[in-house]
Amino acid sequence: MLPDSIAGRTMIVLLIGLTLSHIASTWVLSSDRHDTLIETSERLCADHIAVIAHLIERASPQDRGAIVGGLGGALTEITLSDQPKVGLIHQDEEELSLMQTALQPYFGAVEHPRLHVVHHRTESGEQAGFWRNLAAGFPHDRIMQVSFQLESGTWVNFDMAMVRAATLWSPHAALSTLVMMVAVLVFGTWATGWVGRPLATFATAADRLGRDVNAPRLPEGGPREVRRAVAAFNEMQSRIRRFVEDRTQMLAAISHDLRSPITRLRLRTELLPEGEGRDKMLRDLDEMETMVASSLDFARGEAVDETTETIDLAATLEAICDNAADMGLAAEFEWERRLVCACRPAAIKRALANLIENAARYGRQAKVRAHATDQAVEVVIEDSGPGIPEAELDKVFGPFYRVEGSRNRKTGGIGLGLTVARGIIRAHGGNILLQNRQEGGLRVTVTLPQEGVP
């Protein structure tokens, strides 16, 4: 599975690419070193054989045995015979020509029948075992076998070990690759973290913008591309803030300006003779005033100028339930412990008050409980009312939407309470969920994310 982060995937690409490049470079260098080493070894062995052959040629037949015995050793075996030890088969004509070139200063042009040359490759670690051979790169030795006929007709035979051939796979090559991989991991981790830090900053800023359009602007620093992206993000934030402020101010202004004509209509209506028509007009004016007041509350809920503070949410919930009880509503809070919550106190109190009073007023009673998780505070409000049809659970958050039945204007409300509550909660980066309980009634679950709150 590929890593989920850009830094992790970049590290994989760097590690694989540089490792393959390092192995290819090692192979090229090892091949060049191998060819050079073998060629040098062959020339040295040919010169050594030519010198020894010249010494034996110049020595008397009685002294040749002593020379052969004295010059032979662990790496060089020299024998004299009447027949060549090496057959007249050559693996490579270059092997023969190299030996002829070495013998020419001492014997002149040497014809092919007088000179037999063959190279053998032997595995030097056959008894070492597989793992030791693997660690050593399966080493092998090269042996030059030469049979040369002297002027007297005697053949001098040479078995001479050459320099061990270099292999690509060796402990040094493996160590070099390992050091390179460690270096890539160390410096690559730092580099990808440095390059990816602006993306993490953007993600944090975007999440913060969803909660607070008045959040501080991002500092415009870093490479040119990052500065351009930061400038565009800051401009987008400014446009969103202006849009929200203009809409909120317009709604508040309209609601405020409607109060004056409504007040004049009420005064004129109260001067009318008492009757059914006058009472209906007064009820309509009451409803209009309620709508205006609710619209102002909605506009205030959209405003996010309030400073975020750390409060005890349990104490706030208990105060809301006490106020609802003072109003004659059945509201009960199940106190467990202190709940530390970072929020805009007045806004969150207005949202929770709307939900609790709504449950107590339309659902006969409100039972409230709250608890904290690792990253959020969760508030659950349950009532014993008729609930809400499943098809309308999401529609009730729309402005001025009312559910028929017990939740209608005859019992108060114009359909903005849930809209205001959800707007405030979402401005905190949280969410609100409505569910019908199996035993009857409605369950409202409010989730408020918390970061860095003890």
From TrEMBL:
Ranges for domain HAMP: 193-245
One annotated GO molecular function: phosphorelay sensor kinase activity
Subcellular location: Cell inner membrane
Protein topology in the membrane: Multi-pass membrane protein
Pfam family, one: HAMP
TM regions (residue ranges): 6-29, 173-195
Record domain Histidine kinase: where: 253-452
GO cellular component: a single term: plasma membrane
Known EC number: 2.7.13.3
Main location: membrane
Catalytic activity from the UniProt record: ATP + protein L-histidine = ADP + protein N-phospho-L-histidine
This protein's UniProt keywords: ATP-binding, Cell inner membrane, Cell membrane, Kinase, Membrane, Nucleotide-binding, Phosphoprotein, Transferase, Transmembrane, Transmembrane helix, Two-component regulatory system
PANTHER family xref list: SENSOR HISTIDINE KINASE ENVZ, SENSOR PROTEIN CREC
Protein name (Swiss-Prot/TrEMBL): histidine kinase
Organism: Paramagnetospirillum magnetotacticum MS-1
Lineage: Bacteria, Pseudomonadati, Pseudomonadota, Alphaproteobacteria, Rhodospirillales
